[in-house]
Amino acid sequence: MKRHSIFRKITAICLVLTIFIAATPTIFARDSGSTRKGTSLYPLYWTAYEPCFTADAPLDEARWKANIDWVADKLLPYGYNMVTTDGWLGGSTQTTENGYLLKYNDNWEHDWQYWADYCNSKGLEMGVYYNPLWIIDSVRDDPTKTIIGTNIPVQDIYTAGFADVTKEGAKEYIQGYVNYFKNMGVRFLRVDFLCWFETGAGSAGAPEGVPAWGSENYAKALRWITEAAGDDMEISLVMPNSFNHAANEVLYGDMMRVDTDTTNGDWTWLNAGSFGDERQTWNDRFCQWANPFQGLTGFSDIGGRGNLTLDGDFLRIQNFTGAYADNEKRSAISLFTMAGSPLAVASQYDTIGDNLSYLTNPEILALKKDGFVGKPIYYNGSPFEPSYSGGPDTGSRDSERWIGQTSNGDWVVALFNRSNTTTTKSIDFKQILGISGGSVHDIWNHTNLGYMASYTATLAPHDVSLVIITPDWTDTSAVRYEAEVASFRNGAHFNNDHTDCSGNGFVDRLSGDYPGSNVLFGVNAPYSGMYTVSVGYANATGATSTAQLDVRNVSGEMRQSATVQMPALSSWNDWGETSVQLPLQQGLNLITITRRASDTGAFNLDYIDVKAADISNPGFEAGNLNGWIATGSNCGVDASDVYSGNYKCYFWSDSSFTQRISQTFSLPNGTYLVSATVKQYSGTPEVCRMELSGFGGTSARYTAIPHGNEYTPIYDMVTVTNGSLNLAFFESAGGSANLQIDNVKIIPCGTVDNFGFETGNISGWSAAGSSLGVDNSDVYQGNYKCYFWNSGSFSQKVEQIVTGLGDGLHTVTVWVKQSSGSPSVCQMELSDYGGEPVYSKIPYSSDYMQISGTVYVINGQVKVTFEETGTGCNLQIDCIVIK
């Protein structure tokens, strides 16, 4: 059968047919290198779609080469490390003895292997667009073409362009095709026209004569493909029906298309659809949702690390034109970033124009490399799709407000405006994210917006605001990961029908009705060692419920598992916490909580807290000194004049006294920032300090606590080499002296030399320019700060290369104050980490504010630079931390 149409992109004709969808059974997601990564093996790649679509013809070999060379030169430095062919294969007839295509097109000089090798020589990997179920006409007509490993002619399993999976030899043919490409070094296979195979003629343009093999045979074919692909080849499923909420695709796919073809790749496609299929309604088969906004929202509950990568199709970034073009370009990239869809560039060397910067924002690339996947805000646990084909979405999810957490616990928020009029969008951090507040950084503008408890953006038509939030955690010793934005799998399900949970909701259906249901978190550990993992849960079954908590690395190797015991609570509106110790490796860890068939009871999962140093009673919220050892009798805990929460610790006596409280922690070897918020306002102590000891160093470290009428933060940085740390607060004073202590923290961090300039100079830092110094006036913490200042024109830099970092996502924070003059340049720059520089602009502020920048380190280091250029300007710098 000579059908050019089966090998080219076509108009999706979705049948409007109401079908009965049975209750979805427990579906166990495919476990592969791709799904564990979170955003696929190739979150950044280039595709040959555009030249084929615009010419409606096969790809020219010379253009293929020119684009490979361009990608290697312009995109590979940013992490775009794969190029792939696309469709229009009708001119391909030359095959191996087993009926496998030798090359993309008969007119090409070189075969697949040549081009795979050429890509490798450029530092790139090659992907292939091909469906291993296909049998081309020249193979059908040639009885000498035999199924690999057999004497069966390939023509014996041919039916209407496909391999008939009910016939002998079909498995060997299909798996042989996958291995054929895999043995060339191909690790990405884009498998198209799947709905044609499953539901036959009339399915999205399938011609007469194509039989419907049905969902059972479709699942069999996918199973054979993924068995051959194994752990390290990515299977991208294109044009699937996605019946029963993609039950078969979740089982056997790594990536799944969720909308119509890109075609022109403009705002109409992104917001409405393409090929004339422009709608916000739902169809019961391909394509269920017409546009990326709806498709990525509708399937968001089966996307994420350990689940499918949701594929919004390709980006022709230059085709967003008109008055809102800049807004639309940023919206497209932001949406794909939030949903975990690859940034698949279809633009070419001679069509992209001046749009490369949209695709190379280093802070977005850091999120992609981290495996970050967010979710739209869920209003309730109802499905997004309606109960009938052709109906509108149920409104259960907000396609214009997205949230998610990075592997180091920071929050990412995107607010979109899909409308044609200016609008305002907001998010309350406590209600939606479960945090009291945090420092907000604008990813597109590279500006810092300060500390906020909520965020509101006024958005022009088609615009987006994308921010990253460094949280102010409730439990100061832990990083909290919310279950509702993690990956819920195998029957686990979002809900918010009970009160008082942390954040926007929780995950339910962790019960015997859904054996194997689980939630997976991606957790970046700063150092290897034992961590305390606390599980926030609800259990009103009347008896203890159990679950398995395990940790694996990104290769899938089990590190350790433990059984979690969750005692019964009074009601489903009550939340408790239980803890286990788990070994984490430096870098990315996959922590999964599973309700096994062998477990008892049921529970709802709210969050996990991950603690390197398990501080007992860090804010004295127990109302006493539990967890602390007191030496002396002149201390207590009360509720007056607290810094945060309900209680503080105090030292006080109207006569001479010596007082110490201390606590010893076991924690992984590494560097830690130890801090507290203190106030010493009465009397004149002889000694008043924070003490760090027992960490393997030659001597204890002391941080003086200054006298003042307001609470002030104090910090010290310590490198632990023996797995232990003793923290103490000590005061020796005559009568009527006090000390107040609150909000004690121990945070893993990178080793920044002289991080707070407490040496009284810039030792550890390199300076360019002479308009800087270190003094003790108007400091943020401790006794010193670094400052830039000149009454005339000046340019000043100070920088440090911080080494010893684990590869992965790192956030650099610093407290700054730029309160005089109007500098032309005032910024923090992060560089030399293995990617392009990240700039974080420092705004004017009359008070100290925390700014941040995020990078994905691949070489164990980052250079931190502060720079200012201006006349009569200042900059104050204190407390530089890398987490």
Structural features, described:
By secondary structure, the chain is an alpha+beta fold. The protein folds into 5 domains: 4-373, TIM Barrel (Alpha-Beta Barrel); 412-471, Immunoglobulin-like (Sandwich), CATH 2.60.40.1180; 479-611, Galactose-binding domain-like (Jelly Rolls, Sandwich), CATH 2.60.120.260; 629-748, Galactose-binding domain-like (Jelly Rolls, Sandwich), CATH 2.60.120; 766-882, Galactose-binding domain-like (Jelly Rolls). Helix content is 15%, strand content 36%. It is built from 15 helices and 49 strands. Strands 11-8-7-6-3-2-1-12 form an 8-stranded parallel beta sheet. Strands 42, 43, 44, 45, 46, 47, 48 and 49 form an 8-stranded antiparallel beta sheet that branches. A hairpin with a 6-residue loop joins strand 46 (825-831) and strand 47. Helix 6 (170-182) packs parallel to helix 8 and helix 8 runs parallel beside helix 9. It is globular and about 105 Å long. The protein starts with 32 loop residues before the first helix and ends with a strand. Residues 1-25 have low confidence and may be disordered.
Topology (elements, then pairings):
Elements: H1 33-37, E1 44-47, H2 49-55, H3 61-75, E2 82-84, H4 112-121, E3 125-129, H5 137-140, E4 158-159, E5 162-163, H6 170-182, E6 188-191, H7 194-199, H8 214-229, E7 234-237, H9 243-252, E8 255-257, H10 267-271, E9 273-274, E10 277-278, H11 292-298, E11 309-311, H12 325-339, E12 343-345, H13 356-359, H14 362-370, E13 375-378, E14 397-405, E15 411-416, E16 423-428, H15 429-433, E17 438-442, E18 447-452, E19 454-459, E20 464-471, E21 479-482, E22 487-489, E23 493-495, E24 506-510, E25 517-525, E26 529-538, E27 545-552, E28 558-566, E29 576-584, E30 587-595, E31 603-611, E32 629-631, E33 635-638, E34 648-653, E35 657-666, E36 670-679, E37 687-693, E38 701-704, E39 712-720, E40 724-733, E41 737-748, E42 766-768, E43 772-775, E44 785-803, E45 808-817, E46 825-831, E47 838-841, E48 849-857, E49 861-882
Parallel strand pairs: 1-2, 1-12, 2-3, 3-6, 6-7, 7-8, 8-11
Antiparallel strand pairs: 4-5, 9-10, 13-14, 14-15, 15-20, 16-19, 17-18, 17-20, 21-31, 22-25, 23-24, 24-31, 25-30, 26-29, 26-31, 27-28, 27-30, 32-35, 33-34, 34-41, 35-40, 36-39, 36-41, 37-38, 37-40, 42-44, 43-44, 44-49, 45-48, 45-49, 46-47, 46-49
